[in-house]
Each structure stands twice: as structure tokens, then as C-alpha cells.
Specification:
The complex is a heterodimer of chains A (about 350) and B (about 160). Chain A is mostly helical and about 350 residues long. In chain A, about 60% of the residues lie in helices and about 0% in strands. Chain B is of the alpha+beta class and about 160 residues long. Chain B has a single domain, classed as Ubiquitin Conjugating Enzyme, CATH 3.10.110. Helices cover about 35% and strands about 15% of the residues of chain B. Chain B has a four-stranded antiparallel beta sheet, covered by helices on one side. In chain B, helix 3 packs antiparallel against helix 4. The radius of gyration of chain B is 16 Å and the shape is globular. The chains are: A mainly alpha (about 350), B alpha+beta (about 160). Chains A and B meet through helix 15 and helix 17 of A and helix 1 of B.
């Protein structure tokens, strides 16, 4: 058991470092990555799960366990099943107990999957408090990687992804086999961690869920009573620019994550920012405001409201002369602006 | 509409929307005048003000938010940076360090922070400041606690 968990963390460490190097430089790329993962998970698990029996899938998985780890670094966004298999694969590569347990039950029955999942779940919990148990061991591996290099800031979004993929799995497994009680109990005992609660939730809600509804992709609704207390404040989460649209279906994942948070209205006067305003960056700190307020501030103490450093005047005058024309135009056509002046 | 009015309406909406967001601050706008606000703030824990509820009066200038709001304590408080009689507050962000990006809510937060971290070197209440500056922390705390009990807590019975 112990060697297992060590192996897993060791083997996941180098790739995690690789991920880290790439991702730390670019946060949006990382978010993109997460999203890509989730979408592939959904897509592939739909395809595979609906097309084949779970046993077959698993056998396939043990074969793939021999897949070199390099491949996974080359092509990080793998689907959920592959992840799950990879969980086994890693263990197999290191000649651990799971290989034996798998080979002892060559029938590859669903039960062995669940047992394997449970075992690895326990191991993960032993090695890291943030991991969860149950049949989603592969996903945990992914999450652990992210946790290891500390680049996973938006873990609630990943929890959403977990639910999104597990949702489908649980629906499938509900059709094919009754869920075993054992992992659920284990989950219950560890339900203090957020992900566990999500899975538990899902097991209660899974069959009832409407899969196509994009809102169900969220692990917890804001008003969900099952939402763990330990989670960060939702309000904060919502103010985080990428969280909301993170896993929305039917959208290209990389189109929305490139968006920087541009306020829709001037934080000073609360008027809507027009096109000129929203491309107006008067200060290096990135604090945005409308040209009108900016001018007023320049007439006053001339310090940026965001960082309280004085605006650089040369740059400002250039900006003003460029935008001066449009400013007067807007003054003429906007009644509120006229009133203000 | 004046920008100050628009801005205050926005803040009013925010306050209504996020009433539960900060349980230590209760901001209410005067029914008839949006330039007059009142706030109730809870004394921060582990300070002599713990357990007290302090009332603040905001008077917002026409030039808000380019100019800071005027804030004073309505509740008596023994604090080096609060005038004991008028309730005037000596706080840099209410004077030269004001930024238009601040809101009434953030001013309340700053005042709570000031209560937890008195600045004895720019005192409005010399007695309090002198106690702190002479190192008599216990004396300051005892006085502050007494006034909190007297003025900022509901009377028993």
C-alpha cells in the first residue's frame, strides 16, 4: 500500500514538473488544458461507454497500461478512461500489488475495477489529504498532478469536470451494474474532502440528472446544501473571470479562456465603458476607467485609483490628444455625459 | 445624473445584493438622501472593541468618488485615532490616500482594520495615544474595553 502510493506520486512527479514548467508560465494555457481534458473525458467516455461493455473497456485499459509514460507527456489531454487506466498503468509499471490483484482476477469483472479503484483511493488518501476515493482514481491522479506542482488554483472547476465525467460513468454503471456499497461507505467516511462529497452527491443525484443541461456540469450549485463548508466563497469564485464559463459545453474551450477581465462599466462613475474606453489603459497597473473620469482625476491629484501612483503625464497627454476627438463626440451624443459636464 | 449619484446607486445595489457577504458591516442609506449613509460595524475580535457595535455616519460629497466621504463615529470609542468628542477619524485613506476605486464598504473595512491596529503616532485622542506610546497596553485596553461596554454594547436589563 505504502509503496503503491509512493510509486504513484513518484511517477506522477516528473510529468507534473513538466506540466508545471509549461503551465506556470501561462495560466490561461493551464486553464485551457483543464478544459480540454474535461471535454475529451466527456466525449470519449460517451463514445466508449455507450459503444462497449465496461469489461471490454477495462481490458483495453490493462493493455494500454504498458503504454510508455512519455506518450502522456507528449499528449497530456487524455480522456477520463485513459486516465483511469493510467492510474492502473502506473501501478502496473512499478510492479505493485494492483498488478497482482488484477491478474488474479483475469475475468476483469466490474468488481475488480471497483476494488482497484477503492484501493488506490485509499492509497491516494494516504499520500495526500486532498485526494478522494472511489471509482475515479484516474481523475484523482490528474488532480494530484495538479496539486503537486501547485498550479491548480481553480480546483472547483476541476471538481466540476470530475462530476461531469463521473456523471456519465455513474449513469453507465447504473445501467450495467448496481453500485457497490463499499466505495460509497469509504467515501462517506472521508466526506470532509470536497471531491468526495461531490461524488457522493452524484451517486444520489446521478440517475435523475439531465445530462444535456449545462448547469448540471457544476459540482455544486451556489445554493446546494451539500456544498462543503471548506470550499472557498462562491462569490469570490464568481468574480474570478474564467470560472463561470470554464466548462460550459458547446463552446470552443480556447475561445473564452483568452478573455482578460475587462470591467463592463467604469469603476469610478459606473457608466458603461464604450469601445474606446475598454481599450484605454492609462496606467501600467492595468486599472481601467472611462476617459471622462480619467480626465477628472488628471485635473485633480492625478493618481491612478488602482495603485495610487501618479499617472505618467506624457503618456496621458498623448492618449488624450488621440482620444480627445471621440471624447467630445461622445459628450455631444450622450445626454448623461452632457448633464455631467 | 451626477456621477456621484450613479456611483452611490451602484454601491447601494451592491450592498443590497451582498448583505450577507460581510457580516461585520451593515451599511444603510438614508431613506431620503443618498448622500447620507449610516453603518454599523462590529468591533474586531481579540481587541478591546470586541463585542461592541459601533455606528458610523457617512456624509458623501458631491464630488464623490473623486473626493473621499466624511466619516465619523456616532458611538463613543476610546481609540487613539478617533476624536473622543466628535468621533472624527484620522485615517489616511479618508484624506490624502483616498482612491476613487474605494467604496463605502471598503471604507468600513478600513475602519475595522484601524480599530484592530491603532496608530498611536497620529493621535486624535491624546489620552489613548499617550497610553499606547508609553507602552501601557493594559491601560489602553482597559479604557477601551470600558468605553466599549459603556457605549457600544446593549444595556443589560
Amino acid at each position: 500500500m505504502v509503496s503503491d502510493s509512493v510509486n504513484v506520486s513518484l511517477s506522477s512527479a516528473p510529468s507534473a514538473r513538466d506540466f508545471g514548467k509549461k503551465k506556470r508560465t501561462n495560466r490561461t494555457a493551464k486553464l485551457k488544458q483543464c478544459k480540454l481534458d474535461a471535454r475529451r473525458e466527456q466525449w470519449l467516455s460517451q463514445g466508449v461507454m455507450s459503444g462497449s461493455v465496461k469489461d471490454k473497456g477495462f481490458k483495453d485499459g490493462t493493455n494500454r497500461a504498458c503504454m510508455p509514460l512519455v506518450g502522456r507527456e507528449r499528449n497530456p489531454p487524455l480522456d477520463a478512461l485513459e486516465m483511469r487506466r493510467r492510474g492502473h498503468g502506473i501501478e502496473d509499471n512499478h510492479g505493485s500489488i494492483h498488478l497482482e490483484s488484477d491478474s488474479e482476477s483475469p475475468s476483469n469483472s466490474p468488481k475488480s475495477i471497483l476494488l482497484g479503484g477503492t484501493n488506490s483511493g485509499t492509497n491516494f488518501t494516504g499520500s495526500s489529504s486532498s485526494s478522494s476515493g472511489g471509482c475515479c482514481s484516474g481523475n484523482i491522479t490528474e488532480e494530484e498532478e495538479n496539486d503537486d506542482d501547485g498550479c491548480l488554483d481553480d480546483w472547483e472547476a476541476v471538481a466540476d469536470a470530475l462530476v461531469a465525467s463521473d456523471n456519465q460513468e455513474s449513469r453507465n454503471s447504473c445501467q450495467e451494474q448496481p453500485l457497490e456499497d463499499e466505495p460509497v461507505e469509504q467515501l462517506n467516511s472521508k466526506s470532509s474532502t470536497g471531491v468526495c462529497l461531490g461524488v457522493e452527491n452524484l451517486k444520489q443525484e446521478g440517475p435523475r440528472m439531465v445530462p444535456k443541461n449545462p448547469m448540471d456540469n457544476r459540482a455544486w450549485r451556489p445554493d446546494d446544501a451539500f456544498r462543503p463548508q471548506s470550499l472557498p466563497n462562491l462569490l469570490k469564485q464568481q468574480s474570478f473571470p474564467n470560472t463561470d464559463r470554464h466548462f460550459r459545453r458547446g463552446q470552443l474551450p480556447w475561445t473564452c479562456s483568452s478573455a482578460v477581465s475587462v470591467p463592463s462599466s467604469c469603476p469610478i462613475c459606473c457608466e458603461a465603458l464604450d469601445l474606446t474606453d475598454s481599450s484605454f489603459f492609462p496606467c501600467v497597473c492595468g486599472f481601467m476607467l472611462c476617459l471622462f473620469c480619467h480626465k477628472k482625476i488628471l485635473e485633480g491629484d492625478g493618481r491612478c485609483p488602482g495603485c495610487r501612483k501618479p499617472y505618467e503625464h506624457n503618456a496621458m497627454e498623448a492618449e488624450l490628444s488621440v482620444h480627445g476627438h471621440s471624447l467630445t463626440l461622445r459628450l455631444a451624443c450622450s445626454s448623461s455625459m452632457v448633464e455631467r459636464s | 445624473m451626477q456621477p456621484s449619484r450613479a456611483r452611490l446607486f451602484k454601491e447601494y445595489k451592491e450592498v443590497q445584493k451582498e448583505k450577507a457577504a460581510d457580516p461585520d458591516i451593515q451599511l444603510v442609506c438614508d431613506e431620503s438622501n443618498i448622500f447620507k449613509w449610516n453603518a454599523l460595524i462590529k468591533g474586531p475580535s481579540e481587541t478591546p472593541y470586541e463585542g461592541g457595535v459601533f455606528q458610523l455616519a457617512f456624509s458623501v460629497p458631491e464630488q464623490y468618488p473623486l473626493q473621499p466621504p466624511q466619516v465619523r463615529f456616532l458611538t463613543k470609542i476610546f481609540h487613539p485615532n478617533v476624536h473622543f468628542k466628535t468621533g472624527e477619524i484620522c485615517l489616511d485613506i479618508l484624506k490624502n490616500a483616498w482612491s476613487p476605486a474605494w467604496t463605502l464598504q471598503s471604507v468600513c473595512r478600513a475602519i475595522i482594520a484601524l480599530m484592530a491596529h491603532p496608530e498611536a503616532d497620529s493621535p486624535l485622542n491624546c489620552d489613548s495615544g499617550n497610553l499606547l506610546r508609553s507602552g501601557d497596553i493594559r491601560g489602553y485596553q482597559a479604557m477601551a474595553r470600558m468605553y466599549t461596554r459603556l457605549a457600544a454594547m446593549p444595556k443589560k436589563g
